[in-house]
From TrEMBL:
GO MF, any single term: kinase activity
Top-level division of the source organism's lineage: Bacteria
Coiled coil: none
Keywords: Kinase, Transferase
Annotated organism of origin: Promicromonospora sukumoe
Entry protein name: Aminoglycoside phosphotransferase (APT) family kinase protein
Family matches, as Gene3D superfamilies: 3.90.1200.10
SUPFAM superfamilies: Protein kinase-like (PK-like)
InterPro entries named among the record's database cross-references: AGP_Transferase (IPR051678), Aminoglycoside_PTrfase (IPR002575), Kinase-like_dom_sf (IPR011009)
Domain Aminoglycoside phosphotransferase: 46-217
């Protein structure tokens, strides 16, 4: 790395499983599970969308270049991106979903259903949320547990993982969860907490999206992610985050 590329070390994210640091124009991803980096490298070499350049890989560290532009937004705050940028993101996700799925296995419906049951039991036992909020969202979540045709999915398509410059997608990052899976899951994760942007996203994505299943994944994801977030020092009860998503479902018919 040249001196011009060097700079202060910024901790982007850090918890017991992995950490990401930024040094100049390079991100250093440190992960105790080497399979995550292996999947990320393989996936970025296969997908028909812009991804970061890999600088080097020396387990447990993967170094990737920063992508130009800015993220579509962050969870808990309104997205500053234009409707056209969201539509461009939808078109990029559609290209991904239309690509041949990767050869490694994804999660099965039985695994997802078991996780949903386990995490709802934990939420109820620990009184993290009112019981009626958990039960209502669990009912909504059932719509996601249906047969589907597996697609190439990103698997963790958070709003902070899609970068745009103006109305153009410049890069999609963090591919360690890529696998064959439910394409509606990607659309749901990208719009989690930003439900008002779903129409813009689907304008670019095109036909075939199931809004009821996307809504079901909003509930399922928020239910199943909450314990992990709490145990790793994140706050799912921050404004606009997972608990707000779950509570908002109570206002729907």
């Amino acid at each position: 790395m040249s001196e011009a590329a060097m700079g202060e070390v910024e901790v982007v994210v850090a918890h017991s499983q992995r950490a990401t640091l930024r040094v100049g124009d390079v991100f250093l991803k440190v992960d105790g599970d080497p399979a995550h980096a292996d999947v990320e490298i393989r996936a970025m070499g296969m997908v028909p969308v812009p991804t970061p350049a890999i600088r080097w890989h020396e387990p447990p560290v993967l170094a990737i270049a920063a992508v130009p532009g800015t993220a579509l937004g962050v969870l808990g705050e309104p997205s500053p991106a234009s409707s056209a940028a969201w539509a461009a993101a939808g078109a990029a996700v559609r290209r991904l979903h239309d690509a041949p799925p990767p050869p490694w296995p994804g999660r099965g419906l039985d695994d997802v259903a078991a996780e949903l049951e386990r995490e709802c039991a934990w939420l109820l036992a620990n009184e993290v949320l009112p019981a009626e909020v958990v039960r209502r969202n669990r009912e909504i979540a059932q719509a996601a547990l249906r047969p589907y045709r597996p697609a190439f999915i990103h698997g963790d398509l958070q709003i902070t993982h899609v970068f745009v410059d103006g109305d153009e997608v410049t890069g999609i990052i963090d591919w360690s969860e890529a696998a064959p899976g439910d394409p509606m899951f990607d659309l749901a994760i990208l719009t989690l907490g930003h439900e008002e942007r779903l129409d813009d996203l689907l304008t670019g994505y095109g036909p075939g999206a199931d809004r009821d299943v996307i809504r079901a994944w909003w509930s399922l994801r928020s239910l199943t992610a909450s314990r992990w977030l709490v145990e790793h020092g994140f706050d799912p009860d921050a404004p606009g985050c997972e608990f707000d998503v779950l509570r908002s479902r109570m206002r729907e018919p």
